[in-house]
Design goal:
By secondary structure, the chain is of the alpha/beta class. It is 34% helix and 19% strand.
Length: 180
């Protein structure tokens, strides 16, 4: 099976994203995948300065946790980004990480399938559209990779609420089972 890297971008304590990520990982593991999980909680991520040195060296000049995450993403077969929806977009820290993964662009990256799971208080079907589009723009820069799917869990707001939302837990587990 695949080496799956799950990157959780919520910084909230007892986040609903983290609760559901646990179910996603359980599903992916039960499907036979080798899963590694990285949370951005406690990580130091500076902003990309646009120097483009990474396009020659495949390393970022900034020395922080983004370099470690990029190295793990380079060697994964499948990437799964988990984000809360803030103002109908990904979390700011997810966008910062995507920018900082720029050293992967000229590299011989292994990932082919990229997924996104998002969580929001709003529950209308259009809520994740801009977040999916933003990640899609990043994926388009990697010609060997493609957007493989998305799961949106809406109507979940209060910290820890996902722990009692069996419907969302079941959908997230099934999403994990379906990863390629």
């Amino acid at each position: 099976m695949s080496k799956v890297l799950v990157i959780s971008t919520s910084l909230r304590a007892k986040s609903n994203s983290d609760i559901l990520t646990g179910r996603l990982i359980a599903g992916a593991t039960d499907a036979g995948h080798e899963v590694e999980h990285i949370s951005l909680k406690g990580k130091k991520l500076g902003f990309c300065t646009g120097c483009l040195a990474c396009q020659k060296t495949q390393k970022c000049v900034l020395k922080d946790d983004a370099n470690i995450i990029a190295e793990k993403a380079l060697r994964a077969d499948t990437l799964v980004f988990v984000t809360p929806i803030y103002y109908y977009e990904t979390s700011g820290q997810m966008k910062t990480l995507l920018d900082r993964l720029n050293p992967l662009y000229p590299s011989d990256y292994q990932f082919r399938n990229v997924y996104m799971m998002s969580v929001a208080a709003e529950d209308e079907p259009h809520v994740p559209d801009r977040a999916v589009s933003g990640l899609g723009g990043w994926i388009e820069c990697f010609e060997k990779a493609s957007f493989a799917g998305s799961l949106f869990c809406g109507g979940i707001n209060d910290p820890g609420e996902a722990a009692v939302r069996k419907d969302a837990q079941e959908r997230t587990y099934d999403f994990g089972l379906s990863l390629l």
